[in-house]
Specification:
Blueprint: H1 14-25, E1 52-59, E2 63-69, E3 72-80, E4 84-89, E5 92-98, E6 111-115, H2 120-123, E7 125-131, E8 137-146, E9 149-161, E10 174-177, E11 180-184, E12 207-211, E13 238-241, E14 248-252, E15 259-264, E16 270-277, H3 278-281, E17 291-292, E18 295-296, E19 310-313, E20 323-328, E21 341-345, E22 350-355, E23 362-370, E24 374-379, E25 385-389, E26 393-399
């Protein structure tokens, strides 16, 4: 996922497409991290405005996600796109899971996310989101052997989403809300979603999906009966549709009703942020490819679509290209950001925040902090926020 933009690339030209991406973004190769390698402990905190700084906590091989796990407050889990998950504790790195033999890596493909259910401390199970050698999207279950080591032999495939023809627009986020697993899939790639996958409720591409990932009744997962298309036309797993490439989304649980914030990567003109209650997202159509941001795009307006609360165009700063969705800040130490939504753009590299409202966002502004090619934000159980860079560093947001 060196670029999350739309790039038409069939399987026979994968190497050329990956090279084009690398040349476009001028990304140097990242070195690999070894087992039990010590990370820098005392990196300087960068200068910052608005009472917030960045502290580098380690360096990794193309990190694309970072998170904590219930019951293990001292551990961080860092996802490397080529196919590994590492733990970080007290500056020490260990390989938690090595999936490089299963993962198809290059361009936007790879190991993209990990999620731990609320009962992880007792169940030991967790879930990964990746693309395989054929380019298909997969979610697998694993179990941990110890706090810092997973059992590769415990692998249990949960769901496969066919992703034919193109290598781009793979989505990539897993998030638990209560005991249910939500994940966002891209529309299948190419420009303008030629097959109209995002609007087709019979395919799982261009969707927000919701399942109970535990094996049940001889099946690898089950579908909650409250999903909107159970008993109706459309795949039961679908929770929302009409998305282009929801690479990163998060839940905001600071309100009475949980809300979801989705950073949906745009086509040519706009990057968008969707923000609504999880209840309102049930069966919602986010409009792609009838709409891009607030503007009309291609296919006829299906009516009743959910509009974003915020969108920005290519002209902002002259280098924007891909929204990297973040989190509503709940870390009490980050007082100036409390209740604000933090996000970034892959090409701009500057961190920004805004005040999310259910109808429109307000107060979009720069933080005065830059991260080269930011690939994701992450949050630990204490509410502390992190940001990863494809160049290798992982940072924690800290008060100044």
């Amino acid at each position: 996922m060196k670029s999350l933009r739309s790039r038409k690339a069939n399987r026979t030209s994968r190497a050329a497409a990956a090279l084009a991406v690398l040349l476009t973004l001028a990304l140097p190769a990242c070195g690999s991290a070894n087992d039990q390698e010590s990370a820098p402990r005392d990196q300087a905190i960068s200068s910052a405005k608005r009472g917030v700084g960045l502290k580098q906590i380690g360096s990794f091989d193309a990190p694309v996600y970072v998170t904590g796990a219930p019951g293990f407050p001292q551990l961080l889990f860092v996802v490397e796109q080529p196919g590994r998950i590492l733990t970080l504790q007290g500056g020490r790195k260990r390989t938690f899971l090595d999936m490089r033999g299963l993962v198809g890596y290059g361009g936007e493909e790879g190991l993209l996310s990990v999620a731990f259910p609320p009962d992880y401390a007792s169940s030991k199970r967790f879930y990964v989101y990746y693309t395989d050698a054929a380019g298909n999207i997969r979610v697998d279950e694993f179990r941990r052997h110890s706090a810092t080591r997973a059992s590769f032999g415990s692998r249990r495939p949960v769901i496969e989403v066919p992703h034919p023809v193109n290598t781009n627009h793979n989505g990539g986020q897993l998030q638990f809300l209560d005991n249910l697993l939500y994940f966002g899939t891209g529309d299948g790639g190419a420009g303008g979603d030629p097959p109209n996958n995002a609007q087709n409720k019979e395919v799982l591409l261009g969707k927000l999906l919701r399942i109970d990932p535990r094996a049940s009744g001889g099946k690898p997962y089950s579908v909650p009966s409250s999903n909107p298309f159970v008993g109706r036309a459309g795949r039961d797993e679908i929770y929302s549709y009409g998305l282009r490439n929801p690479f990163r989304f998060s839940f905001d649980t600071t309100h009475g009703q949980p809300r979801i914030a989705i950073g949906d990567v745009g086509q040519d003109r706009f990057e968008e942020l969707d923000y609504l209650t999880v209840a309102r997202a049930r069966g919602a159509n986010f409009g792609w490819d009838a709409f891009e941001g607030f503007g009309r795009y291609d296919t006829p307006d299906p009516g009743g679509t959910v509009k974003p609360i915020f969108a920005y165009g290519r002209s902002r700063g002259g280098s924007s290209c891909t929204i990297i969705g973040g989190y509503v800040v709940r870390d009490p130490r980050l007082r100036s950001l409390r209740g604000r939504y933090i996000y970034a753009d892959l090409c701009e590299g500057e961190l920004r925040s805004l005040v999310p409202h259910l109808k429109r966002a307000s107060g979009d502004r720069k933080l005065g902090l830059g991260v080269e090619t930011p690939s994701s934000f992450g949050e630990d159980p204490q509410g502390r926020l992190y940001v990863t860079s494809l160049e290798g560093p992982v940072y924690r947001l800290v008060p100044r």
